[in-house]
Design goal:
Blueprint: E1 12-17, H1 22-32, E2 37-43, H2 54-63, E3 71-74, H3 95-116, E4 126-131, H4 147-170, E5 174-180, H5 201-213, E6 223-225
Helix pairs in contact: 1-5, 2-3, 3-4
The chain binds NADP nicotinamide-adenine-dinucleotide phosphate (NAP).
Length: 233
């Protein structure tokens, strides 16, 4: 990506939400090295954005001013809630845990979409990528388990798809997608990654950026993997 022609305009403006996370942090580092970059705004809970709180999301969006955004990445998310591992069976379903999953993994990104997507550039190419998970695919679900995380990510995919249709009416060059990053060695996946092939956050960030940077606006509203392939809903 460094020095690559890519699809983003020269001096583009990037906003990363969840900049303190494993994947979010690696994405920030990668984008900072991009010679096309004009400005990057790195938002995290530490510097004032709580995606579960609308006023916090709205106020961060307002502080960006009128200058349009060309790259928006929402890299927030949770897998376990208050130290509780994701459910293995229906017996373990806890409504409070499920609501927390939906709040962080679906409602929060919906608030990000509401307040940040209208700020994408209307004239130039822009990209908005929301970090989802392959386990949010209904068609690909053969193992069961993790019912709260899976269903919250499925809801996120529908939110992103719905938002993309609305955005396309005013921003014909925009690409708005849900993206699965692979199994990445971060705090979130650490207890569950055993036995799975994993990649580093830097490798995941590079794949994600290469994939979205080369995707045509016609693919807006897709659910994709880090290699750009489409994932079944
Ligand atoms: N790692 C994987 O293997 C994997 C696989 C599939 C999908 N994903 C998805 O990729 C995304 C990033 O995950 P990651 O592996 O990078 O995990 P991570 O290192 O735990 O990062 C997640 C980030 O989300 C932030 N966050 C959580 N709730 C928030 C809130 N209410 N407001 C603002 N920020 C909030 C956390 O902030 P704090 O630092 O303040 O807690 C943290 O920085 C998630 O959506 C995850 O579901 C990851």
């Amino acid at each position: 990506m460094v020095g690559s022609p890519g699809s983003l305009p020269r001096n583009y403006r990037a906003v990363v939400i969840g900049a303190d996370g494993g994947i979010g942090g690696a994405l920030c580092e990668l984008v900072r090295q991009d010679c096309r970059l004009g400005e990057i705004v790195e938002l995290s809970r530490r510097n004032g954005v709580d995606i579960a709180n609308e006023e916090s999301v709205a106020s961060c969006a307002r502080q960006l001013g009128d200058k349009p955004i060309h790259l928006l990445i929402c890299a927030t998310g949770i897998l376990s809630v208050e130290g509780k591992a994701p459910e293995k069976s229906l017996r373990q379903l806890d409504p409070n845990v499920m609501m927390a999953q939906f709040l962080t993994n679906a409602v929060g990104p919906a608030l990000v979409a509401k307040h940040f997507l209208p700020r994408l550039d209307r004239r130039a190419r822009s990209i908005a990528a929301f970090l989802s998970a392959r386990v949010g695919s209904i068609g690909d679900n053969r193992l069961g388990g993790w019912i709260s995380y899976r269903s919250a990510k499925a809801a996120l995919n529908q939110i992103v798809r719905t938002a993309s249709i609305e955005v396309a009416r005013t921003h014909p060059k925009a690409l708005v997608v849900s993206i699965h990053p692979g199994t990445v060695r971060t705090r979130l996946s650490e207890p569950y990654a055993m036995g799975h092939p994993t990649v580093s956050p830097a490798e995941a960030a590079a794949s994600i950026m290469t994939a979205v940077d080369s995707m045509a606006p016609e693919r807006t509203g897709s659910f994709v993997a880090y290699d750009g392939s489409t994932i079944i809903w």
